[in-house]
Design a protein that fits this description.
Helices cover about 25% and strands about 25% of the residues. It contains nine helices and 21 strands. Strands 5, 6, 7, 14, 15, 16, 17, 18 and 19 form a nine-stranded mixed beta sheet that branches. It starts with a strand and ends in a 28-residue tail after the last helix.
Length: about 400
């Protein structure tokens, strides 16, 4: 494919990875974002995101994540900085793991694929992770090939890399409308009246995608999920090797969290149905959320049941109707590519997203792209439930 002019709307993790891959292939890339960068309300602008390949019966995402993990390690070397911390992830089960359960299905498939997962009884959990009320979780496993990424820092380093390679980054630019000539797009116009010509336009606007492009609202929508940051009195008890990323009977309860930062900040989140909202609405958690979080702490981490709240956050997902991303040409707009719908689990695939997007734009074969191709809701097939939270 000959070099093209490409405008990307959104400089979060989908947008910046696409910009990098396309620029590396010789395309002229302009990256537009309302800013500031990293955008404080973007899903990828956070302290941390879970990086793991545990997906129940879904071996597609497990295999994709095996490749992504190799590239996370490569990023650490390339940037000479530990952006991905491979501290492991602990999956706790509220009952004995059994066929059909998320933990059992993840564990057995990881074993089959040769990963060194370790099954843990509550006695082992108590000895290895003393801050946990291990008696609540009689079964589970530890996956040492997992961990967490400094998500905001990742976006910053990728934006720096994109600019170094020649991507034109324009912060403070808000999308207003598409420009077309006949049936094909020829660029975009921003709210300040500036026009940006393009052969292709990529929409990577995260939770703003269905707001900016209402014709997509049948396929994806913004959903808020609560996140709390607590101050723990003894950070060492909540840091590796005494603590790691964890999920507490996750498929049934939605609870998951991260090791404490050196300053004692402990992030805990709950992945559930969430609530739909406009991305510009106030990002405030519901009034009863703190009570729910503290009730969970009292049963699982009792020593911090009354830990001070440092801050709360309503993390916005761009959910799709089937939980899979959309990375494809929009069949209703020639020259428009949709690259969104992270559904709460897209960030971990960051090292691969750009390559998939670039192949899709160039219409090159890609072994992963079929999962994210344009699809109708009528095509919904029954799939096993999986935890998708970050």
């Amino acid at each position: 494919m000959s070099p093209s002019k490409i405008v990307i709307l959104g400089a979060g993790i989908y947008g910046v990875t696409a910009a990098l891959s396309l620029r590396q292939r010789g395309h002229a890339v302009t990256l537009l974002d309302p800013g500031p960068l990293p955008h404080p309300l973007a899903t990828s602008t956070d302290l941390s995101k879970a990086i793991r390949m545990d997906y129940g019966t879904d071996e597609f995402y497990m295999a994709l994540m095996e490749l992504a993990l190799e590239r996370w390690q490569a990023w650490n070397l390339h940037f000479d900085e530990t952006l991905y911390h491979e501290d492991g992830m602990l999956f706790l089960a509220g009952t004995s793991m059994a066929p059909g359960g998320f933990e059992y299905e993840s564990y057995t498939r990881l074993q089959k694929r040769g990963h060194p997962v370790e099954r843990l009884t509550s006695d082992r959990v108590r000895a290895q992770f003393p801050a946990l009320a291990a008696h609540r979780y009689p079964d589970g496993y530890l996956n040492p090939r997992a961990g967490w990424a400094e998500s905001s820092r990742v976006v910053i380093r990728l934006l720096e890399e994109a600019q170094r390679l020649g991507v034109e980054l324009r912060a403070g630019k808000t999308f207003a409308r598409l420009l077309d000539s006949g049936s094909r797009l020829v660029g975009v116009e921003t709210t300040d009246g500036v026009r940006y010509p393009a052969d292709y336009v990529i929409v990577a606007a995260g939770a703003w995608t269905p707001t900016l492009f209402p014709h997509l609202s049948a396929w994806m929508w913004a959903v808020g999920q609560p996140v709390f940051h607590f101050q723990v009195p003894d950070p060492a008890r909540f840091r590796p090797p005494n603590f790691c990323v964890w999920g507490a009977d996750i498929a049934n309860t939605g609870w998951y969290g991260f090791p404490a930062l050196p300053d004692g900040t402990l992030k805990i989140a709950n992945h559930g149905p969430g609530r739909r909202l406009h991305p510009e609405e106030p990002r405030t958690v519901a009034l009863d959320e703190e009570e729910k979080f503290r009730a969970f702490l009292a049963t699982t981490f009792p020593e911090i049941a009354h830990a001070p709240v440092l801050r709360t956050r309503l993390c916005l997902y761009c959910d799709t109707w089937d939980g899979n991303f959309y990375i494809d040409h929009d069949p209703t707009h020639e020259g428009l590519i949709i690259c969104s719908g992270g559904s709460g689990h897209g960030f971990k695939f960051a090292p691969i997203l750009g390559e998939i997007t670039a192949d899709v734009l160039e219409r090159k074969p890609n072994p992963w792209a079929h999962k994210f191709a344009w699809r109708s809701r009528a095509a919904l097939a029954t799939e096993d439930a999986r935890f998708t939270g970050e």
